[in-house]
Write a structure and sequence with these properties.
By secondary structure, the chain is α+β, with helices and mostly antiparallel strands. It contains 7 helices and 25 strands. The radius of gyration is 62 Å and the shape is rod-shaped.
Length: 443
């Protein structure tokens, strides 16, 4: 009976020793790598999740645990906890979202098992991934055919849009250029490029040029009460202005199709032409002197009776001789200027006066150097060349005479011709002083 406790004690001691050995034997040595930091632990834990929990590791839902947290721990178990990042990869418009344990864009594409060497990737493959998520755009190479004024060519492009591809492969591309599809419908420059895409391009260009243009002057008419009605004179000559005009020209494939005025800048204002129009009425013509004389003569003859016949006869004879002499003088004077020829050219209307009878000018010098004969068919003008023949017509009666310009004048406002007394008398009444006439040059 006494041996029993010893046996129990020995057994207990054996159990204690054996139990300790068994307990040690029941633990496992585990390699743990959490976010790149490695350690080795001995644990009684049954699963990977238990081990990580015992080590105080807070596993996030996005972390990748290898083996999984439910895996039983065995001898030489190696546990790895890696941080994963969300990534969205869009390949030619198609999206793929996944988690990656990589740290760069290149790592993410490798995890996705995509060969980026034949594609355009944005952002760059070396770009570090964000813990909050990264969007990656991948455009694969595609064949794009472009035709236009320079012919047709096919390019293998990786640019995502039509405009970007054209800018990269066409040396003369501009953003103003327009694309059309096979049905001749416009295609926007931001249209994604698809494999085998074919478009036509029109080179649309704009250019600006500046030119100087003339601005016409206006003609303004003003009444002149001091000038005879029917006459006009220029008070102020008109002067044209000028302006700078900026014109924008649109060309399509080198051909102008539209021109627009962008701006106008007046550099010189035009000056109006001012014309004075006479409004003064012409005076009524005085009675003819011959009528007055005839009336006086008749009255005298009547009062004298038969006893004055011889005197009247003598007077009549004298008068007849004087009249004949005057007529002969006028005939001779008229022949001094050829009355033939055809009038042509511009017709000028103006007031004409006369000179040479009783004013002391008869027999004096003229501007041409010849002696003035008041009965010759001549006239004075301010600017017509000396020797010019003109046909002068009385607008009231229609009578006309051809005169030769041999003198200068008149210098009275509103008058353009100073006829010799004989020329004036040939078509009008010298008693009126002036008359409205027209004149034309005679060839």
């Amino acid at each position: 009976m006494k041996k029993t406790p010893l046996i129990v004690s020995g057994l207990a001691a054996a159990l204690v020793v054996g139990g300790s050995s068994s307990a040690y034997a029941m633990t496992h040595e585990v390699d743990v790598n959490v976010y790149g930091k490695s350690s080795t632990v001995r644990t009684f834990s049954g699963t990977v999740g238990d081990v990580l929990e015992a080590q105080g590791v807070d596993v996030k839902p996005t972390d990748k645990v290898t083996p999984s947290v439910a895996t039983p721990v065995g001898e030489s178990t190696a546990i790895t906890v890696v941080q994963q990042r969300p990534v969205t990869v869009t390949i030619d418009g198609t999206q793929h979202t996944f988690m990656t344990s990589g740290t760069s864009v290149a790592d993410a594409l490798q995890d996705f098992e995509f060969d980026a060497s034949t594609a355009t990737v944005s952002p760059a493959p070396t770009t570090e991934l964000s813990a909050q998520g990264t969007a990656i755009t991948v455009t694969t190479r595609k064949d794009l055919t472009v035709s236009g004024q320079n012919g047709s060519a096919t390019f293998r492009v990786t640019e995502p849009t039509l405009g970007e591809a054209a800018a990269a492969h066409l040396t003369d591309y501009q953003e103003s250029d327009t694309f059309y599809d096979a049905s001749d419908q416009p295609v926007a420059a931001d249209t994604p490029v698809t494999s085998g895409m074919s478009v036509r391009i029109e080179r649309v260009r704009f250019s600006e040029a500046t030119s100087t243009q003339e601005i016409d002057y206006k003609t303004v008419t003003e009444d002149d009460a001091n000038a005879d009605k029917g006459t006009t004179t220029t008070k102020t000559e008109g002067v044209a202005g000028s302006k700078d005009v900026v014109t924008r020209t649109k060309t399509v494939d080198g051909k102008p199709v539209e021109e627009t005025v962008v701006s106008e800048n007046v550099t010189k204002q035009p000056q109006d032409k001012v014309v004075l129009k006479g409004t003064k009425e012409a005076p009524e013509p005085a009675p003819a002197a011959s009528e007055s004389q005839d009336s006086s003569s008749a009255s005298s003859s009547k009062d004298s009776g038969s006893s004055s016949k011889s005197s009247d006869s003598s007077s009549s004879s004298t008068g007849s001789g004087s009249s004949s002499s005057s007529s002969s003088s006028r005939s001779s004077s008229s022949s001094s200027t050829d009355q033939g020829g055809t009038a042509s050219g511009d017709t000028t209307t103006c007031k004409a006066s006369f000179y040479g009878r009783g004013d002391g000018t008869d027999g004096g010098p003229t501007a041409s150097g010849e002696t003035f004969n008041s009965e010759a068919m001549t006239a004075a003008h301010k600017s017509l060349p000396l020797g010019t023949r003109i046909r002068v017509t009385n607008t009231a009666t229609g009578q006309s005479v051809v005169v030769r310009i041999n003198d200068r004048g008149p210098y009275v406002s509103g008058r353009c011709l100073d006829l010799s007394a004989g020329a004036f008398d040939a078509i009008g009444d010298t008693g009126a002083g002036t008359m409205t006439v027209t004149y034309q040059k005679v060839g």
